[in-house]
Amino acid sequence: MATIPTKKISEITTLLSDLTKETLVAVAEDDGAGGYVTKKVDLRDIDDVQGYTDFASLPATGSTETLYLTTTENKLYFWDGAAYVDLFQAAHMTYDNTTGLTATKVQSAIDEVLAKKLDGTDFQQDSETTTGLTFGYKAGKFRNDNAIVSVSAGTVTLTDAATNYIEVDSAGMVSVNTTGFTSGQIPLFEVVTSGGVISSVTDKRSWLHLGGLRNVVEDTTPELGGELNAGLHSIGFTEKNNTSSAGAVTIDWKTSNKQKITLTENTTFSFTNPSQPCNLVLRIIQDATGGWTVTLPTIKTAGGTGLTFSTTAGAEDILMLYFDGANYIASLLQDIK
Asked: pLDDT tens-digit profile of 16-36?
């Protein structure tokens, strides 16, 4: 039996869960005469996924509660009680109160489910129009402030032997370049080409869809289409710990709004500005020796007076800053106990 990556099992499990939610009540095969032969297997009974190298290595008799993934063919089979059926080539039957009983290919159902996850097609790669150095994308839509921008399906021409960055601007114009994603535009795909063909495609659609929030880990500059309401939930930060070296330390405010440092020497601070105006907090702690001095970069304070930091061993001060896009406006809570 072949080993299936945990991520693959998770994807299959999620897919099955979504399919069964789409009123999938039975599975059928095309009988070759324009009709469908109903199978006894209901995908809602599946509770296990097993991996095998290929179809020939499947057990002689399967289980109706198991899906079988062939890793070299990348196909899914189920056991109908008498034989293995290719899940993607079978049909599934659904019942709708308006249209009655219908049957379509399971692959089509999967495509529909995945499309709904992305609120329509939302710029999915179009395999039918992608060929050679032509990259096809399906239609999509996104929110630009209070307006919904709809974009028709289309293609872009890629540069060979390069990394191509496909993106869409606020007006809905899809473009491609080889230098990198443009600030203020929405990234779609990162496509590597070689020898006149596409060698890899990385999905970069990590932005806010109309249907919900997708992964924002890959998008390092996500933007909201409106105000963020956290409701009765908090928004947390990881407090970054800093250390000085040779009497100096740089606090990079792009890495966290909440930071700290334990002084072990007289220390001169420098700041790396955040990208936007924001509130910042820096905890400054004296070590067990104490007596260490603090030298800050240019800041503004109430009345223009300087700040006096604690020097007692173990003392903790909290420096609170507001960055207005150009200046740091500071206040200090001394000797927190």
From this structure: 554 444 434 344 445 555 554
Report how far apart, in Å, the C-alpha atoms of 232 and of each of 9, 24, 68 are: 34, 36, 44
- Please state, in angstroms and rounded to a whole number, the distance separating the CA atoms of residues 209 and 148: 11
For 256, other C-beta atoms within 10 Å of its C-beta total 18
Name every residue whose Cβ is closer than 8 Å to that of residue 48 and which is 6 or more positions away in sequence: 63, 65, 66, 67
Task: Return d(Cα 332, Cα 309) in angstroms, integer.
Answer: 8
Residues 115, 109: Cα–Cα separation, whole Å? 10
Mind listing the pLDDT tens digit for each residue in 72-110? 777 778 787 788 877 666 554 444 444 443 444 555 544
Strand-strand pairing, 91-96 and 36-38? unpaired
Counting Cβ atoms within 10 Å, is residue 67 exposed (0-12), middle (13-18) or buried (19+)? buried
Asked whether residue 155 carries a pLDDT value surpassing 90, the answer given is yes
